[in-house]
Write the structure tokens for this entry.
Amino acid sequence: MDQQDGTSRRRLLQAGALGAGAVLSGGVLDGGAASASTSSYGGRVDTEHPRFTLAVVPDTQYQFDQDRGDPAPLTATFEYLVEQRAAENVVFVAHLGDVVENALASEFAQADPVFKVLDRARMPYSVLAGNHDIDASKDDSRGDSPYLRTFGPQRFRRMTTYGGSTANGYNSYHVFRAAGRQWLLLAMDWRPSDASFAWARAVIAAHPKLPVILTTHELVNADHGNPVAYFTDHGNRVWDQLVKDNDQIFLTLNGHFWPSGRVVRQNAAGHDVHLHLTNYQDRYYGGSGMVRLYHFDLARNTIDVETISPWILGQDPARRNELAEGEIELTDDINRFSVPIDFEKRFAGFAPVAVRPARPAKQLVIPGTAAYWRFDGPVSGQVVDHSGQGNHLTRVQLAGDAPSASGEFHPEQPGHASWVFPGGKNPARGGYLKTADDAPLNKLTFRGGYTIEAFVKLADDGQDHSWEGLIARLGTGRDAGKTGDDPDEPVVKLGFSGGLQVQWAVYPLDRNTTFTNWGHEQVAGQWFHLAIVNDGRHSTVYVDSSELLRNPATPSNGLATAGKPWLVGAGHYANEIDQGFAGNIGEVRIVSRALKPSQFLNA
């Protein structure tokens, strides 16, 4: 497989020091917030940042095998995680069982000081018993064991994330905070009893809004040459007793078998559960202390997964042996991959995101508002201008279907509805709206600056949006006395290019040629907030309050006008409507001054 030398790697969350956050502490069935998560070294994690890392350590048994092991690889892994705690926002470490090979007290005595690397750093972690850690012929009612004396509840009670354990001590749960929310992690024994499964279900029920990650030693297996995992007999028992009917469990992690693999299975609610097997004990040096890093990114709705050996990574490349060179980082598709998850949608069944309440139009009529139109009612012949300036819109029908009302809206939109415009071209079809011939807005030149905003969703039905108009001003450059470029172009047009790039093309008052701002390609079928801001000298395009790149540095002032109506839902060429807009429009506001993003409609 492919390899990479990772000696200079400090990836993913290297944007600088992350801010302070909070983790959870609590009792057996509930957790309370603590102020921050720190360590004696390695820095501070940011529990509010949308990106965080869950470190997963599978079977380490060959490193603690009577007198045949070596604790150095796992020690290096834990030291690396502590060192990179802030840089990669490592919020939790989960061991998947088979800490040792023969369940001997002497082996646990070797492992204990290695885990104290995490204890000293106050880095929260979980451990569960694999079949090599205990008497594998018994379930978790087996009683006392060297494992339990080393990794029983007494070890975890000091952790702020620890929530509680079963009475037998072999199953536990933690609640940690990351990406601005709480997450529950279950660490289940090699063979949970029915009573322990009942306990786990009760823990989940006591935390009804938390997404759950299940860690256990055996659940799915995979074969060489086929990374698609399949359920073992015991895995089916775990699925039936715990996973299938608990929609909160979205990810399971287990070791025991090799090679690694994964599969997706739908639960009783019809939602995906991602089931991952990871184990490297069969590889060089008992797995070389490999750790799988699950980089959650809630902003991108993705979990990026990578597998590295910090022990080999830290070796002098000049002295690294040939076998070690191949184990620095595993970059095949089985061990380095991304999992797309729409977290909000996946968790909606048990933790729906509250919809931002609608806001009355009068709250959004701020000083300088020249026009404010909301498409939040039934389709009619007129749309009222809420600004009080009298710039009402009248609907004009082209060929084809008329606009229709929709309950869809941008999540930050003040009004909770929109109109669907079934536009198109060749011929121009659909419908649009325009101000009256004598509307006050028609004559405004916005010499002191302006802000034009809209909530938009482009139709994703295969419609050709190239050079489509969203908002325009009737009248050409020629009508306004301009002779530069193509004077038959509109004096003002906000629309989209052939590549769905936002385009703001205008004739300024003080220029004879058009000035154009360009955005990036928008995704059809997704809502976005669009804003054009001019401060009297420069125009800037914003999408969802993010400033875009291609804004002219050359100063320009105001908007030329021929005194003709404004259009919403169409553009024109030489004053001929050439295409109707295709998609949803939620609302449009025009303000005769430059606004900051904190003043936008979506703020």
